[in-house]
Design brief:
Keywords: Membrane, Transmembrane, Transmembrane helix. This protein is an all-alpha fold and about 50 residues long. The chain has one domain. The chain has one helix and no strands. The longest helix is centred in the middle third of the chain and has 46 residues. It is rod-shaped.
Length: about 50
């Protein structure tokens, strides 16, 4: 029973970690994409 409980706990922790990492990756990708969009648009406005 203890081994079984340990397995379910490790599965739950692994799932939570995956979800947290996925969340952080999505935030970072959004920030990077916004940064690149701003870097592309700003020089275009400055050149005009």
């Amino acid at each position: 029973m203890t081994a079984r409980g340990y397995d379910t706990n490790s599965e739950k922790n692994g799932f939570d970690k995956k979800r947290v990492v996925y969340h952080f990756v999505m935030i970072i990708m959004q920030e990077v994409s916004h940064f690149y969009i701003n870097m592309r648009i700003t020089p275009a406005y400055l050149s005009i």
